[in-house]
Records
---
Amino acid sequence: MLVTNENKQPEDQDSSKTNQVTNNYHPHKEKEKKSWGKVIAKEGLILALMGFIIFAFKSSFFGTYVIPTGSMIPTLRIGDFILVNQYAYGFKVPFSQSFGSPIYLNAPSDPKRGEVIVFKYPLNPDIDYIKRVVAVPGDKIEVLNKKIIVNGVPIPLKEVDGKEFLSNMVDYFGKRPLRFYKAKTGEANHIVQEDQGIYNPNASDMPLMTIPKDKYFVIGDNRDHSADSRFWSFVPRENIRGRAMFVWFSMVSPFSEHEFKLRLERIGTKIL
């Protein structure tokens, strides 16, 4: 047997090589590879499902936004992170508003005067804006020397000390000649500011007009530094994403054009 094995025929040598390859094959390693493939596929599916659920939740229930500009100062500061109730005016089919008008699963309600809303900017729906509703469908509105008059009644303003607001203002607005007023818009009691160094005829005076059906007139609380309905007209009902609720964090990035600010005291501030 030993001599025979030492004098194999060519076909036997081929057979020996084949046997060698066959002997190096490990079925359990192939099973491990297949098992790992199944685990990766399963984990990927779970992550994709979790991502879908998270984005669906944000689309229909609660969304988070960061305030990049000062149009809503002093109510909202640059760098405020806010939570928005996206079902405040009706429960929407997830993602339906991303592709056009939202599809509601219940009878939608309407925004009220004084509420702070997030909406798709009418001139560029890819951008989200935040302003305060001052007039609703059917209302008559005009602006006379910066005074907003709704249905013949001026929004009441009472001047207040602005030191509290100026102390946390970003550098640009902190240097402006600002005055602060306590206002009541609808049921909302809030603070607005006016810049005494600015008179823009397009914003400070506006002829009487009636708000059409399914349209809303919105203005920023930083009255002289806000691009709003005084400039680009109404917000369509289908553009509204939801109602702003509260600030959950506040920080001006050190990499922004403004000086760094960390405002931990604003955490939990309710948006009135």
---
Amino acid sequence: MCVVRTNNTPLKILKTISNYITMADLTYTVIKNEDQYYEYCEILEELVFGDEVEEREDEIELLTLLIRTWDDEHRLAKEMDPVELIKSLKQDHELSQNDLAEIAGVGKSYISEILNYKKRMSKNVIRNLASHFKIQQSALNQEYRLEGEGQEEAEEKPQTSRIFNIETGNLVSYDEPYDERKKM
């Protein structure tokens, strides 16, 4: 027996749902491959940005659940650089940098600095972009290297270990031939 709740009122169904619906009758199934994943993403995008959002709310929720499950299992979003993800969304939705700044709730210069790896995204920017594009905040809340970051270490002189001769206590030079080091 299956129990379905509508408006918190349980309705008892005498036969199981499987007697009425077969897998072939279902519009959506568990995502099994990338083609199906991208197909569902396109459908979801059409539904979310369409005119019948309220009437198709259950369908949107189901597709969102199926897509999130696939994302969690395959970690597609976690592999992508958050800035590259924003650039991709900007291009896919044919948005200008001004549009993106408005969606993020910041100025054009701040968005420019984010897109050019000069500043990190604030929590509000992440929240606003994720909400608008219907993606998980975690896809944007990942580490990425800012312009110039890490170059200081590369420019510094490489550190070397100092080696001392045990017998004499003198510093051993790498420029000296091996035989001469033995004599010290």
---
Amino acid sequence: MKTSHEEPSTGPATTTRARHTGRDQLINRVFELKPALERHLRVPLPDELRGELQSVTLHQLEVLGMLKHGGMRMRDLARELDVSEPAATAVADRLVRNGLVERRSDPADRRTVRLELSDHAASVLGRFEAARREALASAFEVVSDQQLRSLIDVLETLASAPSPRSQKRGEGAA
């Protein structure tokens, strides 16, 4: 039986609890810094692209970014966006109407329709990404090369880990 003058336990449970408390503080700090990070990394739309992309939402821009690597099937787009196929179809319909995306039959399966960037969208997206890259380089001017390497290490770890959404759906299990 412990008396009030005994030292608290320093066993594994206490060590684990202290580690989680420290980790919780670190996670809270990341959470606190997230708005500042987003402000520094937010890229204003360059004037020369504003007219071309004025009717494109951030969600649609995300879709264009997904399609730049060779297009994808509607089912795959819905899964990547974590939305229903009808919701993905609605986004795709707007992009097709704006001349940014084209529907093409899949050469491997003619019943399947693939979404692919139009030539115009590829050009606009390339210019937008160049502007983003320039803004990112400017934002990171205050960071040393070693800090940037450390950040890249963290981001690569996060990028290679199963997403919380895929874990909930059971896709991340090996």
